[in-house]
Amino acid sequence: MRVTSTEFQQNVGTYSDAAQREPVIITSHNRDRLVLLSAEEYRSLTGQTEGVSEERKRLIRERAEYHRNTIIELANR
Predict the structure, then answer these.
(1) Structure pTM?
(2) What is the pLDDT of residues 50-74, one digit of tens each?
(3) Among 29, 30, 43, 73, which residue's beta carbon has the most beta carbons within 10 A?
């Protein structure tokens, strides 16, 4: 999901909820500036999975893989 910084500021709660399901890319002046992700997604990307069950780790890996292309696309900009 991609939103302008103004849209994000006016609807923080809505986009915070959306970030639980998928990354929210926040743009400014038609450029990608920030990405809002769930804490779970952040932990999976940074490898912070201590104390997490094997099932949860599996789900984290699956979600990270699902968002892999978006993350790579953003990293290449």
Answers:
(1) 0.61
(2) 666 778 778 877 887 877 777 777 7
(3) 43
